[in-house]
Please model this.
Amino acid sequence: MSRVRQFGENVEGYNIPVLNEREIRATAGILFLFAFIAIMMAIFKGSFVMLKYFIVAFLADFIIRLFVSPKYSPTLVIGRLIVSRQVPEYVGATQKKFAWVIGLALAIIMLVLIVIVNSYSVITGLICLICLVFLFFESAFGICLGCLTYGWFYGKKAQYCPGEICDLKNKDDIQKTSITQLLMVFAFIAFIVATVYLFNDFFSEAPGDLWEIIRSARG
Model:
């Protein structure tokens, strides 16, 4: 029974229980996709049905992660199946548990406000935004924002962080950013801003049927 309830897995060469970051990132991407669709439907269609189902499923999954074991979390099992052919990247389970406790707390608040009370407010909107940001950073960059607060809360460094970001080290040349590269980023942003300013009216025109446009051009 203790093995069933153990948080994380024992892997040779690691002195604490660990989790596979690759399956966690895959799972975060799946959750981000469904959360984004549900939130967009609530914003643009005024339908909160999918969002309510998502909140219930999200909460149930996190309860399983934290109070049973991550290895039995349905979404993490799906993530494991997706990345099963990839080499695992092990991360400390302790900081992930702390981050998921934050996720559980946010899910409970959303369950009360949106599902039970059947309401929306600035509070629910802010929590939705926080969840999307957390899931996006995890899936896109491998950065667990909740894990970053682990060190601040407990006053000690986490072990086995993704990409070894917990360990100070000198950057390789390929990781360094030059002034020229930064200038290209700022120039690209300026280009986008200028494009919006100059072509906004043109881009705002509703598109027409392609075949009607071709017939009009021929006629």
Summary: Strands lie at 18-20, 90-92. The two ends are 78 Å apart (CA to CA).
